[in-house]
Amino acid sequence: MLRNSRTERLVALVLVAPFLAIYLLAFVYPTVQMFRISFTDAPLIGAGQWVGLDNYLRLDNDPMFRRALWNTAYFVLMTVVPGTLIALLIALGVSRLKGRFQSIVLALFFLPYILPVSVVYLIWDWTLNFQFGIAMHVLDWLGIPRVPVFKSRVWFLPAVAGVTIWWTAGFSILLFLAGLRSIPAEIYEAAALDNSTRWTTFRRITWPLLWPVTSLVFTIQLILQLKIFDQVYLFSIGGRPNDNMVLVYYVFQKAFQQNQGGRAAAVAVTLFMLVVVVSVLQFQLLRFAERRRR
Amino acid sequence: MKVMAAQRWNFWGGIITALTLVWAVLWAFPLYWGVISSLKPDDEVVRPYIELWPQTPTLENYISAVTTTQIGAWYVNSVAVAVGVTVITIFISTLCGYAISQLRFPGRIALWWLILASFMVPISALIINHFVLVANLGLINSWAGIMLPQLIHPVIIIVYKQFFDQVPKDFREAAVMDNASEFGILFKIYMPMNWGVTTALSIVCFIWTWNAFLWPFLSVTRTEMMTITVGITQVNDAFGVYYARQLSAAVLAGLPVALAYLFFQRRVTEAITLSAGIKG
Questions:
Q1: For B69-275, CATH number?
Q2: Which of B12, B31, B118 is opposite residue A112, by nearest beta carbon?
Q3: Nearest to A8 among B104, B118, B130 (CB)
Q4: Which of A264, A273, B186, B224 could hold A255 in an S-S bridge, CB 3.0 to 4.6 Å?
Q5: Burial of B96 (0-12, 13-18, 19+ CB in 10 A)
Q6: Closest residue of A to B247, CA-based?
Q7: Is A34 in contact with B31 (Cβ distance < 8 A)?
Q8: Which of B5, B63, B87 is nearest to A200 (CA)?
């Protein structure tokens, strides 16, 4: 079919223009600027002198940066692996249910994910409140001494990780359910005819066929949790933010509390690189899964 | 033997179902507890034992939250920002998704790479330069300032492109024969055929924006300009904390998104699985 390519180009330009304007302004420009000021000693607002790689070299023996990196890794470890497994278990349980009943049970698991982080924070701050929290009554009843969870150095990150799993599991459950639904029922019927046990069926059929979804959930969680800030900031209010330092929090502290834009940008670039590497990996996985489906 | 096996399956199946149910109830319990606590008068909230239902249910915490904080203003800010971001994002994403899917023009590939790049980049790493940008534009403490960095939702463009790709070519060719303009084709054929996905994406875009914390927290310094998600965490009284009042503010902040989810459950779950790259 003949096409009028000049009109087509013009139309395309008009259609794409709003997108381009916003992405150039709010994405490309800030990204370029982030790299640029990471080589300067600029404050948050205003120009700075070129200092080369100095900001990056300083990170090497900056104990707070190390703590942020270490805590982020610790947090990722405590959320991503258990979070993926818990979501898989819940999805396996929910997928057995039928119809309306299933959607009610799914809603119970999914509701936390739909809520703002600050609501999640207020609910758990109340539930785990040292004086009046219902969890502390349970501890009393079990004869375990009470713990000031969010004021404790040892328990802070594990507790925030637990709350995060509770908050975000709904998303992973949803992906697992979609994955489970796409496994043909005939395969299970054949397995049942062969008298396959529940465990063998899971190990030989469900787990391998679900693998693309599992790896997708895993990488999405990984990217999400590397960027952890909100929960750590909120639960640290009135506590000890410096002990619970994570990467985005360190960017925030350097830039907005210590007015060191350049050095904060160097931390931001480090985080940026970490996430991009994982994202490229995820993208490859997705393409791989797509190809397998065909 | 066959019968035995079937019975064993059902027995364990029943146990797993029962466990799932108990687990679901325990999972949602903190939500229930938060709502129930917000309905208790002050003296009941701090009683040293568990009461699953308030003895004298009261709305006094809600009245106190509405009258002593600026929650009304925060609500207006949140609604304005979430609606604004949703409308603008859906608008630019349909146009761009349509162009990339249906038109041939120079720079199309580069554009696609820009979208994929923004998909992979952590927006939270850009907070410093978003702040500088918004400050230089004089938009700190304004709706436009809260909205601008939140307009980057490449995944919505990607989903639109996929859906437009699936529309059979015959529709387009017939319309071109009738001398329909590209805008006509987009708004009279492609958009109406995909209303479902537009509704779904709009709802989740609204929820995402309503729930956003980091950027609204950074870009607002004046209490009356805060969104509700930020506002409810920033206000403490000089004389101790009123737990029940804070919880009632939390319930008010969570209510719109919780209702949006409960009313549009299927749409929301559909859009979220789509945004993760899985076709449901």
A1: 1.10.3720.10
A2: B31
A3: B104
A4: A264
A5: buried
A6: A122
A7: no
A8: B5
List pLDDT tens digits, range A160-202. 999 999 999 999 999 999 999 988 888 888 888 888 888 888 8
Specify the pLDDT at position A163: 96
Indicate if A158 and A249 belong to the same structural domain: yes
Co-location of A95 and A229 in the same domain: yes
% of residues, chain A, pLDDT over 90: 58
Q: What is the ipTM of this complex?
A: 0.91
Cα separation, B153 vs B85, in Å, equals: 10
In sequence order, what are the beta bridge partners of B18?
Answer: none
Considering the domain architecture, whether residues A25 and A95 belong to the same structural domain is answered as no
Contact A278, A72 (CB under 8 A): no
Q: At residue A50, what are phi and psi to the nearest 5 degrees?
A: -70, 125
User: Following DSSP, what letter does each residue of B13-42 receive, concatenated?
Assistant: HHHHHHHHHHHHHHHHHHHHHHHHHHTS-H
* Residue A150: closest CA among A245, A230, A241, A81: A241
Domain co-membership, A197 together with A242? yes
Contacts with A202 (C-beta within 8 Å, 6 or more apart), sequence order: A92
The domain total for chain A is 2
Give the distance from CA B130 to its chain's centroid: 21
Q: What is the pLDDT of residues B210-227, one digit of tens each?
A: 999 999 999 999 999 999
Query: Do A127 and A68 fall within a single domain?
Result: yes
Domain of A208, CATH number, reads 1.10.3720.10
Instruction: Name which of A55, A95, A114 to mutate to probe chain B: the one with the most chain B Cβ atoms within 10 A of its Cβ.
Output: A114
Rounded Cα distance between B74 and B80, Å, is 10
Q: How far is B167 from chain A (nearest CA, A)?
A: 18
In this predicted structure, what is the pLDDT of residue B89? Answer: 97
Torsion (CA) A184, A186, A191, A197 in degrees, nearest 10: 60
Which pLDDT tens digit goes with each residue over A111-165? 999 999 999 999 999 999 888 888 888 888 888 888 888 888 889 999 999 999 9
Write down the H helix ranges in B48-142. 60-68, 71-102, 108-120, 127-136
**Same-domain status, A188 and A86:** yes
On whether both A147 and A16 belong to a single domain, the answer is no
Say if the Cβ atoms of B253 and A119 lie within 8 Å: yes
CB contact under 8 A, B124 and A227: yes
| Distant-in-sequence contacts of B32-35, Cβ < 8 A, 24+ apart | B33/A123, B33/A126, B33/A127, B33/A134, B34/A122, B34/A123, B34/A126, B34/A127, B34/B247, B34/B250, B34/B251, B35/B247, B35/B251
Angle at A224 between CA A288 and CA B153, to 5 degrees: 80
DSSP state of A203: I
Q: Closest by alpha carbon to B33, among A227, A271, A129? A: A129
Note down the domain range covering A125: 38-293
At A150 the pLDDT is 87
Contact B185, B175 (CB under 8 A): yes
Q: Domain check: are A129 and A21 in the same one?
A: no
3-class state of residue B172 by DSSP: helix
Yes or no, beta carbons of A44 and B48 under 8 Å apart = no
Q: What angle do CA B132, B135, B139 make, to 5 degrees?
A: 140
Instruction: Please count the other Cβ atoms lying within 10 Å of the Cβ belonging to residue A54.
Output: 14
Rounded-to-integer distance, Cα B269 and Cα A3, Å = 39
**Phi (first) and psi of residue A129, to 5 degrees:** -55, 135
